[in-house]
Amino acid sequence: MPYCPKCRAEFHEDVAICADCNLPLVAVLPVSTEDDDRGLEYLDLYLAPDNMEAENIKVLLQREDIPVLLKDRTCSALPMNIGELSGVTVAVAEQDRTKAKALLQEAIQDEYISPNGTFF
Ligand SMILES: [Zn+2]
Cα separation of 52 and 91, whole Å? Predict the structure, then answer.
């Protein structure tokens, strides 16, 4: 039986394309990616003053098994670094947000990272 890889509907043998998703059907349904998808929703957590600090934070959080996404603001469409708009945004998955924030606050207290960043 063919399946749609997107909506996971099961189709009759002579159907080749899912009418809803407009996708070619597959013989075997791929392993569910729902768990992964949930982890891919990154929320801005912290604005680090520079890239070095952002990398430090990334290492710190990844050590606790928290996936981190860094978004460099300095290469945005805005004209050159305007004061507080420059920096690197540290984003983490929603379910890691509370833990990541606590870890960062701890790291600031321990002076592992500078207090120059901003929480969103
Ligand atoms: Zn479909």
Answer: 15
Has this prediction a pTM greater than 0.70? no
93 alpha carbon – ligand 1 mean position (Å): 27
CA 31-35-39 angle, to 5 degrees, is 135
* Four-way CATH pick for 36-119: 3.30.10.20, 3.40.50.2000, 3.10.450.50, 3.30.70.1530: 3.30.70.1530
71 confidence band (pLDDT: 50, 70, 90): confident
CA 92 / ligand 1 centre spacing (Å): 30
